[in-house]
Design a protein that fits this description.
The chain contains 3 helices and 7 strands. The chain is of the alpha+beta class. It has a 7-stranded antiparallel β-sheet.
Length: 153
């Protein structure tokens, strides 16, 4: 079973500022509110532009129990202004996202979640909420950078 979602930034930003985040997997991972740790894995193919990370999220189950889950996320540059991320988690959950910045400076995330039917509601809800907050955090960082650039220019 799969579901899709798209997130867009509310404002536009300098493309170079957006790319500074999108092309830095650690920076992008750190914006996710569920993430409690992440680390870069050794490259399977040193000639590949992709990087794979181990990521640990903190989750609340049934609104009561706190737990963590660890999964891998592979980040691959896609053209000049995008990155594709594929995450493989437990129970056959796969998250695919394409983060990009369009010509006017809008950040766009197009995502697809694959999960067993009995997990889809929970997984999709967690993904949707955390990625909305991730986008908010990215916009806060981009707005702060814009202010810094205006103040020094």
């Amino acid at each position: 079973m799969s579901r899709t979602a798209t997130n867009r930034s509310q404002r536009t930003y300098p493309i170079s500022d957006v790319l500074a985040i999108l092309q830095d997997p650690s920076a992008l991972i750190s914006l996710n509110p569920l993430v409690v740790s992440h680390s870069l894995l050794p490259p399977a193919d040193p000639t590949s532009p992709s990087t794979t990370w181990t990521i640990t999220d903190s989750l609340k189950l049934l609104g009561i129990f706190n737990t963590t889950t660890t999964y891998t996320g592979t980040f691959t540059p896609s053209g000049e202004r995008a990155v594709e991320v594929v995450a493989h988690a437990a129970a056959g959950v796969v998250s695919k996202a394409r983060w990009s910045v369009d010509e006017d400076g809008t950040v766009v995330e197009e995502g697809e979640i694959e999960a067993p039917w009995w997990l889809m509601g929970y997984v999709y809800g967690q993904w949707k909420a955390s990625h909305a907050l991730l986008m908010e955090r990215m916009e806060e960082r981009l707005s702060a950078r814009r202010l810094e650039n205006e103040g020094s220019g």
